[in-house]
Amino acid sequence: MIYLSSTARKKERPPPLLTYLFALIVLLTSSYANAKKEALRVVVTETYLNMHTGPSRGHPVFHVLEKGEVITLLKSKTDWIKVETEKGLLGWIHRRHIDTTVGINGELVDLGIPDRDDFANRQWELGFTVGEFDNIDSLGVNLSWRFTKNLAAELRYTQATGRFSNSKLVSWGLVHYPFPEWRFSPFFTLANGQVDISPNSDLSQAQDTDDNFFMVGIGGHYHLLHRFLIRLEYNDYTTLPDRNENENIQEWKIGFSAFF
Amino acid sequence: MNRRLTMTYRLTLALVLSLAGCLAYAQSDPPVDGETDSAILNEIITPDIERRRIKQSQLDSEDWEIGIYGGVFSIEDFGSNSIVGLRFAYHMTEDFVVELNYGVTDAQESSIEVLGGGIRLLTDDQREYSYYNVSLVYNLFPGEIFLGRKKAFNSSFYLLAGAGNTTFNENDYFTYTIGGGLRFYLTDAIALHFTAKDHIFRNDIIEDKLTNNLEGSLGLSFYF
Fold this sequence. Notes:
The complex is a heterodimer. By secondary structure, chain A is mainly beta. Chain A contains three helices and 17 strands. Chain A has an eight-stranded antiparallel barrel. In chain A, strands 7-6-5-2-8 form a five-stranded antiparallel sheet. The longest helix of chain A has 19 residues, at 16-34. The model of chain A is unreliable at 1-11 (pLDDT under 50). Helix content of chain B is 20%, strand content 55%. In chain B, strand 3 and strand 4 (80-91) form a beta hairpin. The radius of gyration of chain B is 35 Å and the shape is elongated.
């Protein structure tokens, strides 16, 4: 696609992105500054607790807390919690050790690592998927909300970018989990949505199509660890084009999600 | 047999009596409304040993990251140009991070256009280049960087791999991303990123081939 042009123009684009981002950062930092929470003080009940210099297992242990010492919990970063001792020493302790402390007034400390129970009670799921839609590489995001024990509402966006055509799919539907508490928990999906298929401008001269579709699917969640799961699914689309016959498209996906 | 009968009799009697007692109590002192009723019940039933819990929601977590980055982006055959981008990430564990990126740049002129005297491969609109991708980041070497005798900054050298989409030549291309970088924590909540990435996708603007598009950037991130 070579074409000749007599004028070599240069267009300036304003960067509105940066402006938005700056506003967002200002907003976040100001709300962060306002949200001063009350000090969480706990008593060490294990014989000793290792304090690391940073939030990872590789950071060296520089101090050992003794049983009965009072520490203040400041913040968490993944599985590590920043603490301050009575003498003002700052360091990091792993979450699983914090769970064996008690509050200064005898409160139970519930800061453990999310486990199977949290998985069984998952309400929100946010994740992304890779796969093939009609034999074309696809990438998708999905958000679902489980509103009863067995039913969830789900919203998805998928983009399949091939050499000859690009498809963009938006779908909304219901997901049924017959056994949400199983570690491998199967699900069934019923959804509808819209697919916008546009030809790859390099190669084909086909028309843009914008069709509604109906989708049925089967899949499974597998609780990996913490608040993460792997999802695997196979879907069958029936598009309802303006033309006479329906079209069937198959899709499979593997994905990774966080649940809350 | 006899003893069992007596026991059953006694138990039944006790049950009937206590029930009668309850009824008599309820009749002799009827509650004024539902509220006092429940208040009385609460006083009798609720044990006074309820312990508060310290929960995750009471503790500030800094697992989410938002940031901007800027640097140089080299589009294969179309020169290098500056790039600006957005980074949004979730730190899942101390080892793994999921990251979303969005970046924009413009393609320069290719050698054919520079030397070809008036030949134009792409229009100005087609030169607009943007990408988004989702990557899995692995913190390969977490550690500390020392500045003199007293200062130590947390840091992490990481590798990343991901997939996404590139919009270029007014067309979409499925793109794989690989790369690595260094995250340098100025404080717990602010970090600098030095990142190098390769965006790989197939296109046929000049010829049908897999193109490597290299990006080098410096970024600033905030944790919340």
